[in-house]
Every structure is written in C-alpha cells, then in structure tokens.
Amino acid sequence: DAKTTQPTSMDCAEGRAANLPCNHSTISGNEYVYWYRQIHSQGPQYIIHGLKNNETNEMASLIITEDRKSSTLILPHATLRDTAVYYCIVIKSSGDKLTFGTGTRLAVRP
Amino acid sequence: EAGVAQSPRYKIIEKRQSVAFWCNPISGHATLYWYQQILGQGPKLLIQFQNNGVVDDSQLPKDRFSAERLKGVDSTLKIQPAKLEDSAVYLCASSLGGTGAQPQHFGDGTRLSIL
C-alpha cells in the first residue's frame, strides 16, 4: 500500500471549517483513500473514503486531486468533539489491513 | 445498526498469566480483524478472518497468541502466557466483505495492563 504523509498537528476554531491535508504521491490506480479518526479512549472511527471522485457524507467531505497524489478531509463546521487524531490511509481495492501512521492531531479551540 | 461489541473493556493481569478477549462483529460482516494498539502508536493488525478462515496472521506472535472465529461470527483472542510488552489496547474490527471498497468498523477495544 502507498505511504501517506500528514502534518503532525493542526488546530482550528470551533465553528470554522477544518481542512486536513494528506499526501499520497505513490498511490496506485486501484487504491482507495480512507480517513479515520480516533478520539481518546475509543476505537478508530471510520469517516469517509474515495477512489477518484470527491465524496461527501454527513460527517465530512473528501477532496482528491485530479492526479490522486493528495487529498483533503474537510470538516465543515468543527466542534470541540472533533478534537482527535485523524489518520489518512491508502488501501488496495482487493482489500488489506489498515496501516496506521502517526496521523494529524487536530485540536478544536473554543 | 449495532456496532462492534468487545469485552471486557479493561483487564489487569500479572505476567505469565493467560487472558482472553471476545468480539462480536456487526451483523452480516464476513471479515473480522484483531489489531493491537500500543500506547502512542497506531493500531497494527494481528490477524484477519474471512468467515471462519484465517486470511492473514503473519503478524500474530503464534508462540503466545491464538485466535479463533467459530461459526464465522464471534471471535476470541487469547494470550498465554502474557508478557509485559503485551500491555496494549486490543481492537476488533469488521467489514462486510473485506475489499478496499468496504470500510472496517472498530469496537472500542479491551485495554490490557500487565503487572
């Protein structure tokens, strides 16, 4: 699976959009981009995933660049409960284990 | 839809003792995973089941860890004997079919402390 690179930490103000970047420059055409987050003392929570097109669900939007070498997770209106470690993971379409890196620690401030 | 259920939530044992963890996946999910998460690190896969067959157990320390998924539903993970370095959170996840298009959903894990 392709390696991903994320900033170590970010912060944003409550109510504003949080934009979390991820670089996956070695991604293959048959690999998905997944985003998970982990809030303290809980298991990882699935947020969203995509292959080529941008995706949106009730939690977030995923923007994938045309060359697929990077993506951005957007939390449109961040709340204090969005404070967590966010992981960007690339996984083959045939399926595989999730390989978690160090992720981005997002702090939402009041 | 009920999520992945795990028990117990916490367990404290002494080294060289044995311990077992239980996981009930989301109904209808054929693929089940056990991950180990050491403090300060991301989860790492221990074993993956497809129904009741093992797909990947390459990272499972087989001299002390064992796992089974009888009848292709619930699963148990056992450690015998436990070592100090086994202190971690043990996470169970499940997915519908195990392909890249189907997300894995996690339980909240069992936090194991070895004294």
Report the span from N to C terminus of chain A. 37 Å
Q: Rg of chain A, please?
A: 13 Å
Say how many strands of chain B there are: 11
Major beta sheet, strand line-up of chain A: 1-9-8-3-4
Helix content of chain B: under 10%
> Which residue ranges of chain B are poorly predicted, with pLDDT under 50 across at least 5 consecutive positions?
none
Whole-number average pLDDT of chain B?
95
Q: Strand content of the residues of chain B, in percent? A: over 45%
The chain-level mean pLDDT of chain A equals: 94
Report the count of strand segments of chain A: 9
Q: What is the H/E string of chain A?
A: EEEEEEEEE
Oligomer category: heterodimer
Task: Report on the architecture of this protein.
- The complex is a heterodimer of chains A (110) and B (115).
- Chain A has 110 residues and is mostly beta strands.
- In chain A, 0% of the residues lie in helices and 47% in strands.
- Chain A has no helices and nine strands.
- Chain A starts with 8 loop residues before the first strand and ends with a strand.
- Chain B contains no helices and eleven strands.
- Chain B has strands at 5-7, 10-13, 19-24, 31-37, 44-50, 53-56, 65-68, 75-79, 88-95, 105-106, 110-114.
- In chain B, strands 2, 4, 5, 6, 9, 10 and 11 form a seven-stranded mixed beta sheet that branches.
- The radius of gyration of chain B is 13 Å and the shape is globular.
- The interface between A and B is medium-sized, with 26 and 27 residues.
